[in-house]
Structure to design on (484 residues):
């Protein structure tokens, strides 16, 4: 083998996975067809669950130290969701994708993983033990596993001839990173009387400290083919149609046309090839859900691949990547389609849609509704299907970042990339010792409930502090394989 895992695609999903495999002690090659890293911001923010996951690896503070990334309300269909600011310990931040990619690439390089640029995949083959990848310049790599994180137009997915069912795009809208005058006078989503609309969301500041915004423009006659370049004149005209002279363009940094296509691959695993991020699911980019969902795919997959490579993974552990993440991707597609309808991206000004949005906006002011929407979009509402979820409310959910004696937090304990067993009264020391090469036990003062937490931060077993050792033993075997 040339490497344990070959990752094709060095965007946020691929680099997050490379870091997870680094933590797991798995040799990794990260290849990308681009000759250099893209300077396009694309996604514009990080959700609470992604921020928590970076904190679990000790990467959050270093990332936030690289720039000015303000906390943001977040939104559902342009309706602000300030409730999450108090509800989530780590509220959403406006961290552009370009900043995330730059940070990860530097971090990985410091650990000895350098992106192999200008590596265009042209062929792949697999057998029972190996995936062989061939690149355009003639290089061939053999790996135990290959992960496709090469985007919506995935070469890996095409080479697999895997179906990508769903809806093709029916319209395009303009997405641009801009500096504006008068942006403080504009609301996040605004329509003109004739159906033209603009959406504005903060993107932090440029190196000179000047505010940046993500701007989306749409409406009648604005749905042009994706390959048609976006011009400054088009941006100025769109702003004027919606805001008049109140908001003006100062600088256009980047622009593209995006579509409302919605597709999801039927199987996330094809033998020794697995798909993640936009290679597995695409949708209209709203709330940076594509980037965050892809990074969460990587966090779910990384430790499982690590177990498979090291030989301790139970037989069906890799299968849980599909069973856990496919429903999450499908749910994201549904909520994005709902938002698209409520925002009237087609610019129809349909009175029924207007009435629906007015009603939904009023309903979204109810605290419980705000909490539901905020939790859904932030990823904190995820509950993976696991045995015994009816016995404890935390099973299948992200573990709370508990403080322990000695000023240690649970997130800090997860930085090893191993499982964590919270054993408050020391009742499970004998059982835990059998898995001590994969699971760290935290004893006295570890909280009120006993809890087994996977390396990705999700609770996979919980019970009373002096509960059944046999139940814990079954959970350890289910998620961490046979005892040593």
């Amino acid at each position: 083998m040339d490497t344990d895992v070959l990752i094709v695609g060095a965007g946020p999903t691929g680099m997050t996975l490379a870091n997870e495999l680094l933590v797991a002690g798995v040799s990794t090659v990260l290849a990308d067809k681009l000759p250099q890293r893209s300077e396009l911001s694309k996604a514009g923010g990080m959700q609470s669950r992604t921020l928590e996951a970076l904190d679990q690896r000790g990467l959050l503070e270093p990332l936030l130290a690289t720039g000015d990334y303000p906390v943001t309300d977040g939104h559902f269909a342009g309706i602000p969701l300030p409730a999450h600011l108090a509800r989530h310990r780590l509220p959403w931040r406006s961290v552009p994708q370009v900043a995330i990619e730059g940070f990860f690439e530097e971090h990985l390089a410091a650990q000895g993983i350098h992106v192999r640029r200008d590596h265009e995949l042209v062929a792949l083959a697999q057998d029972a033990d190996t995936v062989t990848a061939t690149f355009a310049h003639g290089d061939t790599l053999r790996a135990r596993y290959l992960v496709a994180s090469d985007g919506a137009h995935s070469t890996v997915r095409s080479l697999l001839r895997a179906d990508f069912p769903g809806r093709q795009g029916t319209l395009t809208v303009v997405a641009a990173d801009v500096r504006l005058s008068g942006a403080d006078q504009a609301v996040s989503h605004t329509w003109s009387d004739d159906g033209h609309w603009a959406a504005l969301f903060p993107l932090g500041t440029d190196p000179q400290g000047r505010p940046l915004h993500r701007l989306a423009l749409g409406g009648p006659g604005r749905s042009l083919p994706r390959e048609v370049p976006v011009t400054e004149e088009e941006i100025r005209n769109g702003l004027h149609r919606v805001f008049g002279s109140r908001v003006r363009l100062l600088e256009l940094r980047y622009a593209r046309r995006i579509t409302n296509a919605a597709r999801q691959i039927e199987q996330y695993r094809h033998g020794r090839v697995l798909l993640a991020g936009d290679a597995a699911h695409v949708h209209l980019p709203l709330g940076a859900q594509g980037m965050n969902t892809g990074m969460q795919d990587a966090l779910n997959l990384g430790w499982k691949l690590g177990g498979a490579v090291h030989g301790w993974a139970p037989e069906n552990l890799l299968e849980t990547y599909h069973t856990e993440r496919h429903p999450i991707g499908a749910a994201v597609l549904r909520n994005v389609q709902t938002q698209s309808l409520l925002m009237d991206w087609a610019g129809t000004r349909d009175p029924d849609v207007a009435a629906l949005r007015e009603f939904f906006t009023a309903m979204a002011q109810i605290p419980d509704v705000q909490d539901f929407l905020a939790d859904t979009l932030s990823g904190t509402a995820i509950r993976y299907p696991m045995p015994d979820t009816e016995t404890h409310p935390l099973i299948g959910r992200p573990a709370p970042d508990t403080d322990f004696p000695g000023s240690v937090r649970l997130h800090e304990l997860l930085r090893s990339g191993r499982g964590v067993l919270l054993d408050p009264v020391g009742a499970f020391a004998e059982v835990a010792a059998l898995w001590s090469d994969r699971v760290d036990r935290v004893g006295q003062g570890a909280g009120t409930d006993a809890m087994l937490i996977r390396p990705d931060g999700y609770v996979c077993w919980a019970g009373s502090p002096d509960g059944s050792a046999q139940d814990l033993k079954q959970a350890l075997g289910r998620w961490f394989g046979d005892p040593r």
